[in-house]
Structures are given as C-alpha cells and as structure tokens.
Amino acid sequence: MIQCAGCGSNLVYDIARKKMYCKACGNEYEPESVDKDEDSEERKLMELTVFICPQCGGEIYSTDESATGFCSYCGAATMLSSRLKSERRPDYVIPFAVTKDMCKASYATVMKRAIYAPNRLKHRRNVQEFRGIYMPYWLCDVDQKGKTAVRATDSYSSGVDTVSHTYNVRCFADNHYENITMDASSLFPDDLSSKVAPFDSADMKPFSMGYLSGFYADLPDVDYGVYRDKIAQVTGDMAYDVMMSKIKHHLCTYDAICEPEEPLSETMDIKITGAKTGLFPVWLLSYKNGKRIAYAAVNGSTGKVAADIPLDIGKFLLGCLIGVAPLYFLLNLFLTVRPGVLLAFVSAIGALVTMIYCDEMEKIADVETHENDVGFFARHTLNVKKSGGRKKKLQIKKLQTKKPQKNTKKKIKK
C-alpha cells in the first residue's frame, strides 16, 4: 500500500487526473514522487503482494495488501491466498488512459452490434466485473540483415511486335528495429493480445510503482526467446512493406513487380540485441462459456475492444426465421421454382453454411487447445520439464535410500 504523506490513507492512481489521488484528504501527487524505491540507487527490485488462484493457479500482483475475491483469468469467485514477493521491476509502463466508465461504454457499443449475443453478457452486473490489470510485454530490439530478389517486367510496342524485358532486382536489408512487442504472460491468450493491440507507445513512461496503485498486474513468465520465429515474421513483414514501396517508387516505369519467391522471414537473418519489459493497461472481463473460459478485453490506452462473444442459439434461430419467412412469401408470389432448382439452391446454401460452420469451429478449437499460443506452450513445456526433473530426482533419492537386501541363502554345513 502506498500511503498519503498528508493523512496516511491509501493512494491510488486516478486515470482522469493522471496523478496519485487520496480519497480521504484529496491530496494529489505525481506517480514518480511516491515511488517507495525512489531513493534506492539500483531500483532493480520491487515488493508486491501476489494473489494465487487455487483453481487455475494464476498469479495476480498488487500494491494493496488486502485479499480479493476474484481471479481475472478464470473468474473464480473465491478468496485468493496471498504472500509477499520481490520481483524485478519492469523497465516501462503505459498508464491507464481509458477510465472504467469509458471501458464500459466501448464494450456496450460492441455488444449492441452483437445481436445474437446472450443477454447475460449485456447485463449491467456483468459489465461491472471489468478489472484493470497491467499485462506484461517484452520490448525487443532486433537487427535484421539479408538478401532477396524480385523480378520486374516492362514492355513496349515496336511496330507490330511487343517487346518485353524481365529484370532481376536484388535487394539487401540492414535494418534495426526497436521495441517489437510480444506478450510475456502465459495466461493471457496470444490471440486476444494481438486483437487488443496496438498500444499507444507515445504514452510509455519509465516504470514507477505509483502507476500500479489501485490496479492489478501480471509479470513476465515467458522468455522472449520463444518468440524468435514470430519476431522474424513481424520484422520480415515490415521489411517487405518498406522494400516494395521503395521498389515501386524507383521502378515506377515498370509494368509489373513480382513478389519474392520466399518470404523475408525465412531469407533474412535476425538477431535479438536486447529485451526490456513493459506493463501495458488492459480492462479484462472473464466469464464461463460452457466448459471453457471466454474473455473480453479493452485496451486501456486506446479503448479498442476485443471479445470472444458466444452465440445464443435461441436468438439465432429466431433471426433465421424472421429473415427466411418474408423471403419465402416474396418468392412464392412472383416466382415458380422447380423442385430441381430448389434442391440445388438449398444444397448450395447448405454447403456454404457448413463451410462457415467448420471454419468457425476450427477457430474455436484452436483457441481452446491453445494451438497458436506460443507463451502457453512455452510455460507448459517448462512445467513438464520441471516436474519430470523432480520425478527423476525422487527416483534417484529412492534408489539411494533403498536398504540393501540381505543374502537369504543358508550356508550348507559340511
């Protein structure tokens, strides 16, 4: 808890004021001025209260010492066990700029367009469950070098003939990128993290404990090295956009420019030269959708909304009935459809609906199995290795402590 210098009450970061605010006496402070570790020379560690969910094992950090009755990741309504823990201080933080009222308004706007969403997700009580939490991100600096080539063609008419020329345009990249952001939490789904991005990096500030007061936080539990392939893909796409824009600018007289035969993420060599940590603001809502946990997240910097919205079957069937009935009577009045044509039309519609259904179910299955969640698999693999190591140590210990068996053979007397 960060105490007010005037009355000793708890200070919280007020989003609207952009300052630390005391509700008891009304004093305001700059977040950097109330940092407990401000006088420390190195300021590498910070002391936080960590709440551990007994259901999902999620860890949530806070500057407040009081217990809480929810888990931001699984939505469990339970008292969480707590303990003190010293953690390495993040390097940067983007403070909350979107208030909770603004968050609820953005979410309500999205839910108004979701006509087939269950009513419980639109209920006022459900919207109140949004929690402000700082999500951890890696900020990676990357060097990129490599060669590639593209083909450019031009043509012109020479009398009755058309003359075409093909050119091999060679390109060399030597780029440096800073602050390539990657999700550093294994519990925050990567697909949700990418949908709620980007954050407003212009608001990024050096980390101070004051910004965490009144909110919760998660800290990195995934090494940035596991995202090397993803970083290569991101920087490759960035290099491709720059390369193609320059080629089109300098070779504007050419008729066509072909794309490289191989993606730049495979032809370019990348080197992660440094990695810093940052905490980015998210308003998070978790709810149970059947047997799985679904999420709604609002970017605390820009207000962008990303939600896993389930489908209410009753509303969907009612909407289909309302849409199909007028169409049926309209066609019946003006057209006479033969059975063969009707069967073909219905079959085509059925095939289209089946394809859409299978595609959506595949996306849901990927989310449920964390198919593309690099952070989740990295943490899971680490846990498996650790548990396997403990089992091996336990087996070795058992072998070492096992008493030697006595020789039970009786000596034969002569």
Features:
alpha+beta; disordered C terminus; 414 residues; three-stranded antiparallel beta sheet; 15 strands; twelve-stranded mixed beta sheet
Could you give a short account of the major beta sheet?
Answer: 12 strands, mixed
Strand content bin: 25-35%
Range of helix content: 25-40%
Q: H/E series, N to C? A: EEEEEEEHHEEHEEHEHEEEHHH
Summing up helix and strand content along with how strands pair, one would put the structural category as alpha+beta
Overall outline: flat
Number of strands: 15
Round the mean pLDDT to the nearest integer and report it. 76
Distance between the termini: 85 Å
- Low-confidence stretches are 37-42, 389-414
Number of helices: 8
What is the alpha-carbon Rg in Å?
30 Å
